Amino acid sequence: MKNISKIILIVAGLLAFASCDKIDEDKYTIFAGVAGDWYTTDADIPHVQRAFIEKYTGVRCIFCPKADDIIHDACNKYGDSVVVVAVHSRSTGFGRPLGNDPSLCTESGDEWFDYFGIDGQPAAMINRSRNNNAWDIFDPTSNFDDRINTVVNSKPNIAISIQCGNDKDSFYFFDINLELLENISDELTLTVLLTEDKIYTRQSKFGEGEVENYEQNHVLRTTITNLWGVDVPDGLIKGDKRMVRFYYLLPDNFNAADVHAVAFVSYKGSRQIINCAQSNLQ
Amino acid sequence: MKNHTKQFLLLALAVLTTPILSAQGILGGHVTGNVQIDGQISSADSVIGAQDVPEKLLMNARADILYTNGDFSAGLRFEAYHNPMLGFKSQYKGEGIANYFVRYQGDIISITAGNFYEQFGSGMILRAYEDRYLGLDNSLRGLNVTLRPFNGITIKALAGKQRYFWNYSNSIVRGIDGEVNLNSLISSMAESKLRATLGAGFVSKYEENQSIYADPSHIFNLPLNVGSGAVRMDLAYGNWGLQTEYARKGQDPSVMNDFIYRNGEALMINATYSQKGFSANIQAKRVDNMCFKSERTESGEMLYINYIPAITKQHTYAFLSMYPYATQTTGEMGLQGDIMYKIKKDTPLGGKYGTDIHLNASVITAIDTTQVPGPGIGYQSDWFKTGELYYADASLEIAKKLNKDLKLTCTYGYQIFNPVVEGHPGDLHHNHIVVADLTWKVDKKNVLRFEAEWMGSDSRFNYDVNDKRCGDWIMGLVEYNFTSAWFVSVSDQYAYRDGIGNYYNVSIGYTHGATRLQMGYGKQREGLLCIGGVCRMVPASNGLTFSLTSSF
Predict the structure, then answer these.
(1) Do B226 and A21 lie within an 8 Å CB cutoff?
(2) What φ, ψ does residue B351 adopt, rounded to 5°?
(3) pTM of the full structure
(4) Contacts of A169 (CB under 8 A, 6+ apart)
(5) Closest Cα to residue A71, out of A90, A91, A88, A51?
(6) Is residue A20 part of a domain?
(7) CA pair distance B138, B158, nearest whole angstrom
(8) A31 and chain B: CB distance < 8 Å anywhere?
(9) What total number of domains does chain A contain?
């Protein structure tokens, strides 16, 4: 009897104390809306103006590594205030792979390359801004802090944040929250894309020829939304907050640990970017 | 229902035939039971708000049958609601065997299979019980094992599903409880003046996941297993006694707490002192988010796994109990003091027979809360800070035997009641109540009782709130018990100022042995019926009631 009692006590005690779930503070709720539909939210969205640095590059572009160094310095200097996307594009042939390396070009990248009329690489834009009715495309091989400062020091009209997670193995979700900080009468679009760091390829480099195992960072891998984005609901006024979720099944050739999700809001008519945000996938 | 009946008959057959096969003999057993039939005929009364009853006659009936044979017993309860009486949930409609069990009760082990009732400690983590007047049955259907491996040690383990009207909840309740009586366990303490019992328990429920929306795009991430544990201590030393229990509950978002993820906790302390002619008792409790139900979407009085003891006085006089306090399991703090003193006979105040004085006071408040927005812990709470006043009650009762035939009991009570505890806003009600109760023992078989009550209140009836307790009231009652078998009573409660309603009642009853028949005619005011802080709403009624109870 003594032994039976002990066994019953131990087993029942273990079962009992194991029978209690604890939900972590950041997981009290689970998104259950329709992907791509917009919902009101009370999420806390940082009122930060960020700069979207869009660098057009290619593995055959010998001056592009120089631009990479400049941008690397800018990332270190501005941290979360800058979001960088390296658009490898093949239109001029700079994006064509070297040797048997996989192509880093994307259809979206090529389309943007053509749309913005990039005629040489490296080339960059910040927030797809315009200068005298032309896209303000510049050479990023020299310091462009002034351009970054102009953007990040301005007052944001819209706040944006992005959170990622995965419900199942490689099935990731992306929650984008927007808050209008000013009334904006123009139609807006939201674009979500993925970039990846630490992709090692051959790279042509000025003075060194073809370099092996060159580390490519911020590489545009895919757009989750249409490349020109999805429509942000009409009729929003200052103070309104909205959220939308997208899902994406991460392909095997993406290394989730080095992937970032990027979201930006732009004017539908002018394509100019108003604000952007970035989050690590993991 | 039919399946349950079939199951039970098979089970009963197995139990009953086992002794025959083992040559113990079924004739050694015996059958006991009781029957209760309550009925009601009610018609519309626009003044008191009574509705017409389409069925004309409503009836609740039940019969408990218990078969006992040595250490074995088996029982069942048949219930019929045709249709449920006013104030009882319509889900009870129907009839069938609501409860059945078989039990072996040995010296070391007791096992119950089927429906059972159980309580751990004061019930703060588990109390499966039944109260027919509340229409409440939280019995568990499953297995309940009690072990007494050593003298002074009791271990209980159980698992089952809670009754929900004619069905069972979709969750599983598991629990274990241990209690040690140190005086029985430790031989050197056997004769000690200090009596000590320690206990601890743990209860967990498993409930399947549900999609409950926190907002249009998010569902709650619900814990499927919710645990609750408690420790308790019961000490007595000479005339002094101290009972205390502390309970905690894990995250349990539910409709009762607006789906917050805050842990729950409750503390109950009870200190007593008693000697001949005098006793004093003080109770304190603090409850924070301790509503523990076996279904997270159940908002009624059903499916409570636990029970938070009430620390307000359970009054019996009509006006003193007109504003009963319903325990706020989501959060409350309270204090109660109770003193009983008997002034000795043959003293100036005690007179020839002595005088009993009973003083009671209690106060219940909300706990302090500071809201935390969004889905989450819901609020922060300062442990020692009180929130708004929920209820306060002070009463003084003096009972004196005037001569060998006359006994007079006079009571004064003062109550403050916050209607928010019943779920609607409004000003506090301040009530003064005076009761005089005179019992005249006419002769050995005839007793006449007179009762007069008055209540003055600052509450005023208005049709928006429609609280029919408001206003100033007066009541009279005459009750005559004759031949020790019959009784008849006439009473009337009348809201004579700033209130509404005139509630008269005539009752007659007859008792013969273990059988009692009672009939009444009159009006019943709508209100809460509370027993031990657990309440049900009783709607107004106007008409005839009858009740038959018998046991065998």
Answers:
(1) yes
(2) 65, -155
(3) 0.79
(4) none
(5) A51
(6) no
(7) 14
(8) yes
(9) 1
Q: Residue A201 maps to which CATH number?
A: 2.60.40.10
Chain A residues near residue B214 by CB distance under 8 angstroms: 28-29
Domain ranges of chain B: 106-309, 313-500
Best B108, B205, B208, B218 residue to mutate vs chain A (most A CBs within 10 Å): B218
Nearest CA-CA distance, residue B527 and chain A, Å: 38
**Within-domain flag for A13:** no
Range of the domain at A238: 30-280
Residue pointed to by tokens 């370099």:
A211
User: Looking at the partner chain, which of A27, A33, A40 has a beta carbon nearest the beta carbon of B221?
Assistant: A27
- Tell me if A24 is assigned to some domain: no
Q: What is the mean pLDDT of each run of 10 residues along chain B (552 residues)?
A: 48 46 57 96 90 92 96 96 92 95 96 97 96 92 95 95 96 96 92 95 95 87 96 97 97 95 97 97 97 94 93 94 92 97 92 95 97 88 95 97 95 96 88 97 93 96 87 96 90 92 94 95 87 82 95 94
C-alpha dist (Å) from residue B7 to B4, B14, B201: 5, 11, 32
Q: Which amino acid is at B368?
A: D
Measured in degrees and rounded to the nearest 5, phi and psi for residue A4 equal -60, -45
Q: CB–CB of A32 and B376 under 8 A?
A: no
Contact present, A185 and A235 (Cβ < 8 Å): no
Say whether residue B226 is in contact with chain A using an 8 A CB cutoff.
yes
Q: How far apart are CA A119 and CA A133, in angstroms?
A: 17
Q: Does A41 touch chain B (CB under 8 A)?
A: yes
Answer whether B139's CB lies under 8 Å from B116's CB.
yes
Give the C-alpha separation, A158 to A176, whole Å: 13
Cβ contacts of A163 on chain B, cutoff 8 Å: none
Between CA B74 and CA B237 the distance in angstroms is 40
pLDDT of residue B216: 80
CA distances from B161 to B74, B90, B175, B199 (A): 19, 21, 12, 24
Is beta strand B486-497 parallel, antiparallel or unpaired with respect to B472-482? Answer: antiparallel
* Closest C-alpha among B30, B33, B15, B16 to residue B515: B33
Using the beta-carbon criterion (under 8 Å), do A1 and B225 form an inter-chain contact?
A: no
Residue contact A20–B225, C-beta within 8 A: yes
Q: What is the Cα B224 distance to its own chain's centre?
A: 29
Contact state of B149 with A2 under an 8 Å Cβ cutoff: yes
Residue of A nearest to B263 (CA): A22
The Cα-based distances of B187 to A2, A127, B179 in angstroms read: 19, 84, 17
ipTM over cut 0.90:
no
